[in-house]
Write a structure and sequence with these properties.
This protein is mainly beta.
Length: 177
């Protein structure tokens, strides 16, 4: 997908929790997406995504400095091109934990959100943590029409309970330039 400066996606998770992603720049090899800081990354103001794969390449801090992105478990959420059955895996670390991040495009599915009805790729993401045997999953529905995910669903196990941001969410509006 090709993003353009000014493309915007607004989401809702839980009562009153709304946030927006905006494409704020386009460089030779990356798109720059302004995004609200995630918990644990309050100094991050934007993310750079590879134009071919939409994998996150680096972050940008509030002072405009590049911050390498080796440990974000969602950094390769899409890994374009998407095809049914495609699988990809990578490992990251957080504090003393090692995370195995496994993805698979499960299929194509029609999804309805507040923003409309969309044909989507259904992406299953499983995160395994070691030491230990903790496992949690998330499903994302990516829409070629909106050029971003339109729905997100977390498993309801204890795995994500300590993460305030880890809630089901859906697209409520978008605009593409």
């Amino acid at each position: 997908p090709i993003w353009n400066i000014g493309d915007k996606w607004t989401y809702k998770r839980g009562p009153g929790e709304v946030w927006t992603h905006n494409v704020i720049d386009s460089k030779e090899k990356v798109f720059i997406l302004d995004t609200p800081a995630a918990p644990g990354t309050p100094n991050i103001k934007a993310y750079a995504y590879d134009k071919k794969t939409l994998n996150m390449v680096f972050r940008i801090d509030k002072d405009g400095r590049r911050v390498e992105n080796t440990n974000d478990p969602f950094k390769n959420l899409y890994n374009f091109p998407l095809v049914i059955g495609k699988k990809w895996t990578y490992k990251t670390s957080w504090e003393s934990y090692h995370l195995q991040n496994d993805f698979q495009v499960e299929g194509v599915e029609e999804v309805e959100t507040v923003a409309g009805k969309f044909m989507t790729y259904k992406i299953y993401y499983k995160q395994s943590v070691s030491p230990g045997s903790a496992v949690g999953w998330v499903r994302f529905w990516y829409s070629p029409e909106t050029k971003f995910w339109v729905k997100r669903e977390f498993d309801k196990s204890s795995f994500w309970k300590s993460q305030d941001w880890a809630k089901d969410a859906e697209l409520i509006s978008y605009s593409l330039k």
